[in-house]
Every structure is written in structure tokens, then in C-alpha cells.
Amino acid sequence: MSILIVFRLLSLLLFFVEGEVLFESIESKTVSGEPVFNKVQLIQEEKRDIWLMKQSHHGKNSKKWDQVSIVVDKSFTPFKASFHQLDSKGVETEYKTSCFRCHPGGPRIIREKNKLNLKNKLLITKWNLLIKSYGEVKNIENNPFKRKIPLIENSKLSKIKLDLVSCNNCHGEGKHRAALTKSQVLTIKHLVKTKQMPPWPFKLSSTERSKLNKFIYGF
User: Fold this and answer.
1) Which among 126, 129, 83 is positioned nearest to 106, based on CA atoms?
2) pLDDT for residue 72
3) Among 117, 152, 187, which residue terminates a domain?
4) Residue 105's closest CA among 166, 170, 149?
């Protein structure tokens, strides 16, 4: 049985937990180093999964939240994802940043910093299993108007792929997750530094770590 099917079945076992989760981002910070808070919700349709996220750079009690969504179209093989920045009325607006910098292929695993109650822990576990079950997801352009900030900010960097055996076990063309490129270097740096990647039982060899440092830092 495919591991992707296993992830899907495990997520279905948690069908009874639904709702929205508020949490502090483990990775994102404001310009001044303050915490960033996210509210995430999932709307599932027959052929689409719509991931909604509100994000606050002004504390969890702020009345000002950015709104973004990732729409996973399951009518394609592999699935395809489009990225949307929304204004307060839910209307498509300019991206705040290039989505490809953090999202090489659709939604990312949700990693929360603050402690959550049991329901919310189960809900995030369910969502993460669902995200893992997608396998490789292709990003598609969403340009209802001429954007100042594109989905992919630097096409040259997006073509420089991270080529390490420990990473290629999961990331790459036809793999469980999309290939990682130079565009995601800051995200890669954070996940390796915090020992969230590579996941057990994979481990970077000394040679791979040297190659990774060169990939991240240039030396």
C-alpha cells in the first residue's frame, strides 16, 4: 500500500475534529522580532481543498489580519495548487511576498509554537496527514491582474535544486513532496537548524552537510 494512501486513511480516522486553529508561528517573526500568529481553517469540496489562513503581525488580539488561501485542485494528477492573497472583503489582491519562497509545492506542514488543547492538536495532526497524502503538488500561476510581486520572485534561483540523497528520498519530481530549490533557502536553513528536517530516520552525512552549507551559505 502506498504511504500516501496510509496518510490519507489516518487523516480520515480523525474525521470528528473540525474547526479553526489559532497558533503562534514557529518560524515567522515580524521585522522587529515579535511573534506572528496564524488562524488556519480547511474547507473541503469534492475536487478542491481550500486552505484559509489569517495572519497577524500585531499580536493575537489584533483586529488587523492578512488573509491568504491555498487552493489544492485534486482533479489533476499530480494535484495543482494556486495561491491567493485576499483583502478584508475576500477580494483577490497583490501578494505581500513571493509564495514560492516558502511553498515549493502547495501547503506546508503546520508547525505551531504555542501549546494547544487536545482538540486543536488532533486537528493539526489530521491536517498534516492530509497534506502529506497529497504527494508532489505542482504550483500554478494565479494572475487575475498584472502582479508587482510574482508567485516565483527569481526564476533562476527556482531552477537550482537541492540535490542531497537524504532530501531526495522525499523531495523531487514524482516523489512524496515537491523538489526544493535555492528559492526556499531560508526555509531550508530554518528547518535544518531546528532539526525538523530531515525527519527520522533520515540523517545528513558529513558530506551532505558540507554540500548543504554550500547550498545555503555559498561556501
Assistant:
1) 83
2) 98
3) 152
4) 170
Question: Does 133 lie in the same domain as 110?
Answer: yes
Which residues constitute the domain of residue 173? 154-219
Are 108 and 173 contained in the same domain? no
Count Cβ atoms within 10 A of the Cβ of residue 13 and give its class: 0-12 exposed, 13-18 middle, 19 or more buried.
exposed
- Strand order from edge to edge, sheet including 80-86: 20-29, 35-44, 48-56, 66-73, 80-86, 138-139
Q: Are 169 and 215 members of one domain?
A: yes
Say yes or no: 158 and 51 in one domain. no
* Burial profile 22-51: b = 16 or more Cβ within 10 angstroms, e = fewer: ebebbeeeeeeeebbbbbbbbeeeeeebeb
Whether residues 17 and 112 fall in one domain: yes
The answer to whether 110 and 168 have CB atoms below 8 angstroms apart is no
pLDDT < 50: residue spans in the chain: none
